[in-house]
């Protein structure tokens, strides 16, 4: 009778130890705890850099459209005025761009007198991406985009 109880206890201990080492109940929680921070950093990084690239694209679009609108001017002052008025009139269609941090420079190209260049500068230092920890390199806080358009179509 003693032998049966010893074997029974050994079998019970073996089965408990076996169950402990083969249990998978907490594995999912451990895997989630390891993977979730990395996944969330990637997702937030995509969102932050995506918003920055959206601002860059908006500044480029403003410069390009301002250059196109400046073609209607008869002299450099009128072209510059048309480019500035286009940017100030349409900057509100880009929700991530703060109009107060935008400057426009429109003038004839230094290298070619038949080309009119519109440059739009934006100070992006107030964006949320620059308040994040610096474990990822931050892009430049000054966004400068230009567009050139020839005069006269020749």
Task: Provide structural commentary.
It is a single chain. It contains 3 helices and 3 strands, in the order αααβββ. With 154 residues, it is an alpha+beta fold. The protein has one domain. The protein has a 3-stranded antiparallel β-sheet with strand order 1-2-3. Strand 1 and strand 2 form a beta hairpin. The radius of gyration is 32 Å and the shape is rod-shaped. The mean pLDDT is 84.
Give the ordered list of helices and strands.
HHHEEE
Q: Distance between termini? A: 110 Å
What is the tally of helical segments? Answer: 3
Oligomeric grouping of the chains? single chain
- Count of domain modules: 1
Which runs of at least 5 residues are low in confidence (pLDDT < 50)? none
Strand order of the largest sheet: 1-2-3
Approximately what portion of the residues adopt beta-strand conformation?
15-25%
Helix % is 40-55%
Largest sheet: 3 strands, antiparallel
Radius of gyration using CA atoms only: 32 Å
Overall 3D geometry?
A: rod-shaped
> In terms of structural class, how would the helical and strand content be classed?
alpha+beta
Mean pLDDT: 84
Strand segment count: 3
């Amino acid at each position: 009778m003693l032998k049966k109880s010893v074997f029974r206890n050994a079998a019970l201990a073996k089965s408990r130890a076996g169950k402990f080492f083969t249990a998978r109940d907490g594995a999912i929680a451990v895997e989630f705890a390891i993977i979730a921070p990395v996944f969330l950093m990637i997702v937030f990084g995509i969102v932050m850099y995506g918003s920055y690239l959206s601002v860059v694209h908006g500044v480029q679009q403003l410069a390009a459209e301002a250059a196109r609108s400046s073609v209607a001017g008869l002299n450099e002052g009128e072209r510059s005025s048309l480019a500035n008025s286009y940017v100030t009139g349409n900057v509100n269609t880009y929700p991530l761009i703060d109009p107060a941090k935008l400057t426009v420079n429109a003038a004839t190209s230094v290298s070619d007198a038949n080309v009119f260049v519109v440059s739009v500068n934006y100070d992006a230092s107030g964006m949320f991406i620059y308040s994040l920890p610096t474990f990822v390199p931050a892009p430049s806080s000054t966004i400068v985009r230009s567009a050139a358009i020839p005069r006269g179509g020749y």
